[in-house]
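G., before I forget:
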Amino acid sequence: MKEPLIQFKDVYKSFGENHVLNGTDLSIYKGEITTIIGKSGGGKSVLLKHIIGLLEQDSGTILFEGRPVSDMNKAERKALKRKCSYMFQGTALFDSLTIYENIALPLKETTSLSDSEINSRVRDKMEQLDLHEIDEKYPSQLSGGMKKRVALARALITDPEIILFDEPTTGLDPIRKKAVHKMISDYQQKIGFTGVVISHDIPDIFNISQRIAMLNDGRVLFEGSHDELSTASDPAIKEFIQGMENRHEKMDCIPSVAEKGTMAREQAFAMPGQTGFSIILLHLENLNEITMNQGSGASKAILNSFVSKAHDCIRATDSCFFYGQDGILILLPGLAKDNAEIMCDRLVSMINIRDILDKFPATNFCLFASASFAGAVSGNRPEEIIAGSEFKQSKKYKFSFCNELEGM
Amino acid sequence: MVRLSALINPLTALGRGTIFIVIEMGRIAIFFLRSFALIFYRPFQLNKIMQQIYFIGAKSVFVISLTGAFTGMVLGLQGYYTLVKFGSTGFLGAAVALTLIRELGPVLTAIMVTGRAGSAMAAEVGIMRISEEIDALETMDINPIRFLVSPKLAAALISVPLLTALFDVVGILGGYLTGSVLLGISPGAYFTRIETSVILDDVTGGFIKSVVFAAVIVTICCFQGYFTHTRTEGFGAKGVSISTTSAVVISCVLILITDYVLTSFLL
């Protein structure tokens, strides 16, 4: 049986009358990304601060490689701290230092590297995180998203073994969110660090996590894999997951018209390829025609309506995005291509064209949609998968949705 | 029962207050000792110390010169009109120099440094605390006290005695300006009296005071900022403002108390 790297055993922590951790049990395994989800103010950050030693538990034990941290001497704790890196929710960048100095600080203060070595490492990291020409700027001169990336660069600069991310994507736009997820996932595959992520980005964050823990009222309500979470029967878990997904999907699926194409591509591109998944790409073929006859408002309403219907039909763990001007991309994690086709059949049968067209009772038109599919495994580039589904790998289906009441 | 509790309650409050003060003094002492010891922890933070010397020392030169000059001028005026009644205006130089070197130089310099640099230290450290920057240092395995407080302490221990010396010299020249240039005392008498009356113990005493005051200023101001988050009377920006105010008030009061204690030992 696998030995946990970090283990919480019956940990309690209170701040005055506020009991934050109430007998928390949690295992974090080496080389895995563990995501901690739960309500805001539920003690997730407090839990994370216990790992790095910023807070001490009132009772209970925290074990590192099977040894209680409380039994470690000063040098051992120092060594443990050096293995960890922490990305703060509020970035915690040093306001009086420039961006370059912020990122270089851990190297300058804790290593004996030469200035040129530090310089090259910082430049590399800034390059990787798309941070250009901001070396001499101060954190207050940057946008929230950029600050997050700088904080991430600072957390990664020492190549730590354990990285603790406290809401790394909060406040970022959906494109940046996906980019950060991809970056965490890529780095994890490359360096193999152990990650603990606090996140509300459900279900996107599941794509990069091997384990998920749900914290509720200071106790771990659920601990396990993504699949186990999908099948969890506890109503509290279901309610939380569903609630979070609905909120996020609405944000993801109904962006402004201008963002539609780019966003879908970026999101699909940012999709991690560590677990098998398949995609359905739906095209509403005569949407242009509808735009010409009925106006762009009608086509936009139809597309939005179609997406929201599709969203109601897919599984809780699936996600859907706009793709181009007339496309909808549905991601189905853990599902083979054949099953995606079955899923699509079911989806189409569940969509009632009248619901979609009922906003235009006086109109008389048909809606044609074509669907293509592709399966993917680890290592596939999402854009190749999409291109494959569009041109060669998949056969095309054709469904027609007509407003029968109008006598089509 | 009511009477008994009326008798006990003030005693309880007094006891609680005393325990709090003793604990706080202990914490401040430990904070100082750690900050001082970490100055010598390798690698030395020479760059940071130089930056702080610039901030605490070099940038205070103007304000110290100004206050020193006017203090000396006022002493010259007051001293002249007092001494003239006894026909001993020749002692003005000695009066001005001894007052400045023994008392006013170290005390006023320390109070000026508290106002100029101490308040800034408390606010800076306090803001770093509330914006989790100090926590960030800890997670990076950078000792926050060594990183933030030790360079300030080292710089103050170097700068404050130098600023005090500057204050004394400018003050003596201020006294000369009013005593000799404006009121006509012989410059030779003024400076000869200084030379004959000021002994090395006076200078050493003033130097010891300025070193102690430097330690008091940095310890109190950084301590107040460092523990901003534990304040119960205000959080966030309000907490920082209370910390800054407390830092200045406590430093000034402690400077005067320490001055009395040191004077009684040095005399």
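The longest helix of chain A spans residues 235-253. Chain A has two domains: 6-248, 255-406.

More on Monday.
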